[in-house]
Structure formats: C-alpha cells, structure tokens
Amino acid sequence: MSKLPNIPTSIFSVMSQLANAHGAINLSQGFPNFPVDERLLQISERLLRENVHQYTPMAGLPSLLEKIAALTAKNYQRKVNMASELLITAGATQGIYTVINTLVNQGDEVIILDPSYDSYEPSVLVAGGKPVRISLNDDYSPNFNRIEAEITTKTKLIIVNNPHNPTGRIWTESEFEALETLLDKHPQVVLLSDEVYEYISFAHAHISANSRPKLIDKTIIASSFGKSLHVTGWKVGYLIAPEKIMNEIKKVHQFLVFSVNSFSQHVISEYLDVVDFAAIANMYVRKRDLFQNLLKDSRFELLPCEGTYFQVVNYKQISTKNDMDFAKELITTHGVASIPISVFYKDATDKQMLRFCFAKTDETLIAAAEKLRKI
Q: Which of 5, 32, 141, 203 has a C-alpha 20 to 30 A away from that of 54?
C-alpha cells in the first residue's frame, strides 16, 4: 500500500529525461552546468588523502558548525549556539523532511504557500499530516487574510520559501512584520523558513528569519551549501532551530542519516575561509541580466527576478496551450527544456508561465535564447 498514492514522479526528473531524449538544452532542473571554484577543487584534492573519511559527529563537523555560526552572526547578527542550535543535513530537502516528520503528527495541518516546491507536500503526507495549500497573490506576495482564514487549532506549521522558487520573489520587511503579528496570534504554529537561495539575491537584500528576533524562538531555518556554492550534487545543507526544537529534530535525523558525508563537510569548512558570497550573487546578477537581455525582444514576457537563479516567463503571446503541453512542445520542437509553473500548485493553476534556470554557462544561455527568440 502506497503512502503517496497520488504523488507522481518529480517534474524535474520528467523534464530532464525528456530533454535528454530529444537533445534539448536543459534549463529545467535547477543545477549549474559550469565548473566549481578552482579553490574548492584544490582543497578537495588535498583533503582527499587526509584522514577525513570516517563519521563526523552526528550534528556535524565541529569546525563547519563553528563557521556557520560565524557566518550567521556576520550576515544576520544572530548568535547561534553551535552545540545546540545547528545541524548539518544531507541537503536542504532532507533537512526539511526531517523537520516536518519531527513536528507533524497524525492529523496536524501544515500551511504551504503555492506555487511551492514539490517536496513539501509529500513530507507532510508521510508524517500523517494534512497539507493546506494556499495560493499567493497574483504578484506572488503572501495573502495574510487568506492564510489566517485557514489557521485552525490543528495547524502545526507554516512553510515559507524566501527567496522564492519558482518565482524569484523576495519577501519585504512589511510582509515579515505581518507574519510576526500572525504568529503572535497563533502561538501553537511553528515557522519553517526555506532559505536555500539566501545568498542569491539581487533587487534588494534577502531578509532572513534569522534576523527577526520575534521569530527566532518559533522558527527553523533550512539552508543549502549545494545551492550557495553551486555544488548541488554534494547534498550538504543545514538547519538552525531553537534548542528545544533542535533536540527533537536530532532524534529523527540520527536514525535517518546519522551523519552527513564527512569529506564534503571538511572541504566546505575550509572553503568558507576563502569564498565570497557577494561575488557569487554578482555572478548570478550578470547571468540573469544576460538571459533577460537576450530575451527582451522575444515574444516571451519576463517577470521580475529578485533572487534565486530562476527566470519566470509568460508565453501567452505565443500559444494558448496549457503550460505542461507547451513546455513539452518547447522541448520536442524547439529544443529547450523548462518547468511549467502549474506543477507548483495544488490545483494546477495555469497562468501560461514557465520557469527557466539561468545557472548555466553563458554559451548555454546564448544558445537557448537563440532558439527561444525564434518562436
């Protein structure tokens, strides 16, 4: 008997497989196709022959935890206790799954804001919870009246993704203030803040839940070195949570993965001494601007992209097909893969939108744009 009878194969796998089958340029799945930093490779080569291949402590490599605490203090002015409030995870997805399966019991409700990343709902269902999917406004801002109307005595968790995948939107100060007011009124509700794109922000600075004193005692933040350092295949992320909640998260984590890849932790720990997150953000600004400029004379309408490495476009001037069919046509006929936005909605809301990933080499983006401009 399936625990997830209505959950299909991930759209990212579907579109990538279709792209491979048709030799299309893959702008669907969110992974970079350019080389990692040479300094990261040099650290990796040196450490490969050192004694770094056995288990780390369950919570994570102490030197890495210490540097995450320092990074959090530097960027968000939050003092994190590395011994009791930090946990290294096997990517942010595993971290999010662990949080949900720690906090959510049979019949508990979890509010998910659509369009939403596809791992949230399955994690809730496996925990025996009830996903409550609420659509964002047309401009992808949160609708707090709609959210509050759905809060009940069974609501255990609200999941927020900021910067937002798939839309690239970043929450504002006033939106955080509204969220704080809402959670004050409903003290039983915990916030799970998915911030895996925290260091990829453009239009204005990312506001982290780490920087909100009113939220700290009721929030778990999920971060991703895979996204931040463009090493997605390493699957290394981390959670920050209040000690009382983190103690419970660790109980689940230890029997899920126990400890995360030791080699990757050692390499990342050293690499944090030299990496410049501002330079990474600037690289993605340049790639976003390149991709947008290449498409500005096309028939695609480009939506604002304030963060992440995703560009959402509207194709209503090109086709009346639904977004899934048009995305498949884009692969089979025009040779470019994207993700249809409707898959991020519970009710498959179709606004004729597609998501392109611009975390690619300039050559890839230029080649893809050349095909898209001809449509």
A: 32
Tokens of 61: 């490599």
pLDDT 10s digits, 99-124: 999 999 999 999 999 999 999 999 99
> Checking phi first, is residue 298 left (phi over 0); if not, alpha (psi -120 to 50) or beta?
beta
Which pLDDT tens digit goes with each residue over 44-63? 999 999 999 999 999 999 99
Positive or negative CA dihedral for 367, 371, 374, 375?
Answer: negative
For residue 202, the one-letter residue type is: F
200: which residues sit within 8 A by CB, 6+ positions away? 163, 227, 228, 280, 281, 284, 307, 308, 309
* DSSP E strand stretches across 46-169: 86-89, 109-114, 130-135, 155-161
Token code pair at residue 148: 């509050």
pTM, two decimals, is: 0.96
The HSE-up count of residue 91 (CA atoms within 13 Å, CB side) is 12
B/e letters for 324-340, b = 16+ CB within 10 Å, e = fewer, are bebbbebbeebbbbbbb
Strand 237-240 versus strand 86-89 pairing type: antiparallel
Q: Are 168 and 305 in contact (CB under 8 A)?
A: yes
